[in-house]
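Many introductory courses stop at the sequence. We go one step further.
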Amino acid sequence: MAISREKMIELEKRTIDEVKVKSIVLMENAGMAIFNEIKDASSYTIICGSGNNGGDGLVIARHLILNGKEVEIFIIGENKSDDFKTNLEIVKNLTDKIFYIKDEDDYNNLVESLEVSEMAVDAIFGTGLNRELSNLYKDVINIINLHGNFIVSVDIPSGMDANTGDEYGACVRARKTFAISDIKNGELLNSNSGEIETVYIGIVRYSNE
């Protein structure tokens, strides 16, 4: 069974507002769940957006680092969410292998990292994306597709519409997607999702309907 973007947002909001599970706890649960699924590789390039999907990526990065893995983190985007900022400050205490993608001058470093890492983790955009991507994001996604070895996506491949599966100018081609809590409708309509597996993070399973 798959659900819409709107239903996922509703269930997450109920978990936070009514059950009183803090959003950063859900982020930790998501990151830990995906870490447990991908921890058997030895080296990783993790590409994070600046919102909560990127925050999930930072949690994954932290647990990989604490388990002795080789991890390089690339961050794209300026409007950082509060939970992202909290997890970034934590990760900064563990590694200096944090790089920022601001323009095309930063692409070569990403290419080199992707080519040597066993796994690329796409944590740029989550299910909330509903707009055409800027050229910077399109370029980064195309670089991931061209140079990543084994690509996994956090919740949904970045660039994909969660409801329709349409692409906003570019889309990560994941070998495997870890859908958070539920598979989204659009993931079943676009083969770029690759193999889809759900991960449990503690979101409530009820609604007003």
